[in-house]
Amino acid sequence: MSQAKDNRRHDAKPNANKAPAHKRRPGKPHRQAPADGQGGQGLRAEAARALVPILTARGSLASLDDSRVAPRDRALLREICYGVCRTLPRLEALAAVLLKSPFKARDTDIQALLLVGIYQLLYLRIPAHAAVGETAGAARLLQKAWATRVLNGCLRRLQREASELQAKVDREPAVALLHPVWWLKSLRQAWPDDWREIAIANNQPGPMTLRVNRRRISREAYLERLREAGIEARPCEHAPDGLTLDSPCDVTALPGFAEGEVSVQDEAAQLAVELIGPALAPRPGARVLDACCAPGGKTAHLLEAFDASLQALDSDGERLGRVTDTLTRLGLSAQVSTADAGAQDWWDGTPFDAILLDAPCSGSGVIRRHPDIKRLRRPDDIGRLAALQARLLDNLWQTLAPGGTLVYATCSVLPEENAEQIAAFLARTPDAVVSTPEALPWGQAAGAGRQLLPREHGHDGFFYARLTRQA
Q1: Residue 318 shares a structural domain with residue 443
Q2: Is the peptide bond preceding residue 295 cis, with omega within 30 degrees of 0?
Q3: Is 236 designated active site?
C-alpha cells in the first residue's frame, strides 16, 4: 500500500485539483491473455508490457495489474517494475552500450524486456541462467521470437563484463545517481548542500510507516501488539501517532488493520495534523475543508484527532471512492464531494474555520515511492503546477473565515512549489499572515514554511506552511 498520494499521470492539465503524475490513476490497460501458467517467461513478458507506458510517457505504475500472474509471482513482478523505474538511467545507459543499434519505436516492449533482464542481473538474487534464459524466451510471448537471440547475446555479455560496463556508464553523474539530468540540476539549484543526499534517498525504497488510530488504541499499546505478532517496529521521531516497521509487510498481516486500528501513512504526511491542530483542538465541531483530499490519509487522520465537521473535496470521483472506503474501515464520517477546488460551485457560503490544501505537485519528495516520476515528469510541468497551486490558494482563501487557518502542503522539495509559492501568495494577499511556528522540531525553515527532505531511512520530502486570515 502506498504511503503518499497514488501514482498519477505526468500531465497536469488545469482542472484545479485534478491531480498530476504521482496523484492520478490512469485507465486500465488493454487486457491480454493471462500470463499465469507460462512460468518465468510469462512473468517477464508481463513486466515488459507494464513498463512500456512508462518508457513512452503514456502511463504510470498505478496501472500495474498483478492479477495476470500467479499469486506467488506478484511480489517479484512489482519488484521488477518498480526496480526498473528506480534504476532506469543506468539500465538505459547499459542497454545503449550492449545494443549495436537501438530498437525501433514499435519494439519498445523488447527494449523493456532488455531492461528487465539487466535489472535482474545487477540487482536481484536470481540465478543468472534464469534471468537470461527466461527473459530472452519471453520475447516469444510478445510475438517477437526474433528478439530472443538479441536479448540472449546482450545479457550474456553483461554477465561477462558487468563491472567494466557499469564503471563506464557511471562516469556520467546522472547515470550514477539514477536521475535525469534536469532533475539533478533542479535539486542542485534548490539544495546545493543536500542535493546528493536527496538523490540517494530517492533511489531507496521508502520504509513502511503506520499511523495508529488514537480513537481506538494508543501507539504504545499497538506497538506491543506488533511485537506479539512478531513484527518489529519503532516509534517515529516526530509524528506522535507514527510507527516505522523494520521490514515492510502486507497490510493483512497487521493486527487490527481491518478493524481500523491502524493505517499506512508516511511520517511526513502525518505532520499535517500536528500543524493544523491548534486551530481545531479547542473548537469541537469546527468546520474543516480537506481540499484535494484523495486518497484520504490526511482526511482520516484529521477525524481521528479532532471532533470536526469535515468536508473532503477532490475532482477525481474514482479516487474519492478510496476516501470513502478508508473512512468506513476506520469508522469515521465526513461529507465527501466530487468537485473542483479551483471553483466555488460546491461551497454553501459558510466559511471554514480551517482548510488543509494538499496541493497537486511534482511529487519530487516521494520519488522513492513512485520512481516512475523520474521518467514521467517534465521540466515544464513545474511551472504549470505552480500556476495551478496559486489558483487553488487564491480561490480557497475566499472560503476561509476571518481568524481561520489554512495549511498548505505539498510532497515536493522544489522552491517554486513551496517557499516561492507562499511568498508570492503573501505578496498579493493583504489579509494573509504567516503562523508557521518557528521552533518546530522537524524540517528546516524555508521562507514562510517548513521543508522536510527525504531521508534514506526516515520520512518523505514534504513542505508545509500555515497561514492565518486576519480578522
Answers
A1: yes
A2: yes
A3: no
CA 291 – CA 283 distance, rounded (Å): 20
Sequence-ordered list of residues with C-beta below 8 angstroms from that of 75, at least 6 positions apart, any chain: none
Rg of the chain's alpha carbons, rounded to an integer? 23
Q: Are residues 320 and 450 in the same domain?
A: yes
Domain limits at 304? 267-469
9-13, 75-79, 86-90, 194-198, range with the lowest pLDDT:
9-13
Chain segment 227-250, per-residue pLDDT in tens: 999 999 999 999 999 999 999 999
User: How many whole angstroms from its chain centre is CA 466?
Assistant: 23
pLDDT band at 6 (very low <50, low <70, confident <90, very high): very low
Amino acid type, 27: G
On whether both 111 and 226 belong to a single domain, the answer is: no
Active site residue: 81, 236, 361, 411, which one?
411
- For residue 15, pLDDT beyond 90: no
Listed in sequence order, the residues at least 6 apart from 188 whose beta carbon sits closer than 8 Å to its beta carbon are 195
The mean pLDDT value for 358-374 works out to 97
Specify the pTM: 0.90
- Confidence band, pLDDT 50/70/90 cuts, at residue 8: very low
Is 281 among the domain residues? yes
